[in-house]
Amino acid sequence: MSTSIRALMGACAVGALATAAVAETTITVATVNNGDMIRMQGMMDGFNALHPDIKVEWVTLEENVLRQRVTQDVATNGGQFDVMTIGNYEVPIWGERGWLVPLTDLPDDYDVDDLIPSIRSALSVDDTLYALPFYGESAFVMYRTDLAEAAGIDIPDQPTWTQIKDAAEKMTDKDAGVYGICLRGKPGWGENMAFISAMANSYGARWFDMDWQPQFDSPEWQAAFTDYLELMTNYGPPGASSNGFNENLSLFQQGKCGMWIDATVAAGFVTDPEESMVADKVGYAVFPNKEGVDNHGNWLWSWNLGIPQSTDAPEAAKAFVTWATSKEYTQTVAEAQGWRAAPPGTRTSLYENETYVSEAPFAKLTKETMDAATPEKPSVQDVPYVGAQFVSIPEFQGIGTAVGQQFSAALAGQMDADAALKNAQQLTQREMMKAGYIK
């Protein structure tokens, strides 16, 4: 072979290698603007090193907008996203409809049997996983230990709503910009209705009776929603009808909330000394109950990564979702930011890790509240549905958001509790009739 031909062939080989290096697969990940997901975007060096041929583009959205966008995309087979951040509400419904790629044949080192059983079950249809959990949560009370001490109050491990109201009153100092309690008010089935539904459960209420008749005209709903409005009107921050999870997190970190009752995942952020002014002054208690009602309203939620059937890069998407939900990813976060920052609530091994349990003062109660959640029986009354802070029927996304808008309007002073409950009853009954649940 002549020198010139050999040189030409060598040049062609180099050119082919260069082409291969840039021939990458691009996947688009739709995610929510919560802290753990923002953190993940800063941890991509590990994934990029393992998969230099996969480029990840992010679409990061506010929670209500994310739900609207991904639901529209998956229902129309739109193909905008290769990976979707979705909840355990959507996964079984979408999996059963064939909208999600089944996640079978996961790598051995993924250790699927390490997933917390209740979370794994919530993401499965006929024992097949249709999404992988990024973090899991229940809900509990986070409170300022210094404010409680200064007010001379003791918040018990299992408080009642009466005790919560008393504590909120005594910790409120509006002149100092401190409000006794912060709760979700932003409308949305997964925003204010997640909290209010859980609170209603703890009062003995239910969304529907066994004949799918709405129950907003019940005394239990009347008591729960009236108390919610009184708490927020008297002891909550101004503009609360616009506050969701992220807004209340910011308020608590700034020292403006005496108590915040919300997702257990928030504990990792309110105790972050780099982000929270009150990191060393946080105590925890179980989600409250109404006196005489044996139900603490624990919810069970997970944010998960699912792959829509419309993706044109299923293997690249699968590589990403297995990496982002792996034990190795958790280790990466712990090494970079400490075990307190590890994504909680998805793996048994995390709660068997003594270092995590010792560094995260909220770990034990988080696991206990998740274990105590009973989504299969969210109310002390009989119900025809499952789901602790939601109702696992496809129509709930629209109904829950519409009811949430009524309740948020009441919080903003546009109507009273009776009017909001009456509107909720009527619109829910109308939608359930339209869907064929009732006649």
UniProtKB/TrEMBL annotation:
A Gene Ontology cellular-component term:
periplasmic space
Task: Please state where this protein is localized.
Answer: Periplasm
Q: Which Pfam families match?
A: SBP_bac_1
- Signal sequence segment: 1-23
Keyword annotations for this protein, in alphabetical order, are: Signal
Per the database entry, which stretches of residues form a coiled coil? none
Q: What is its main location?
A: periplasm
The reply on keyword Signal is yes
Record-stated family: Belongs to the bacterial solute-binding protein 1 family.
What is the protein's given name?
A: Sorbitol/mannitol transport system substrate-binding protein
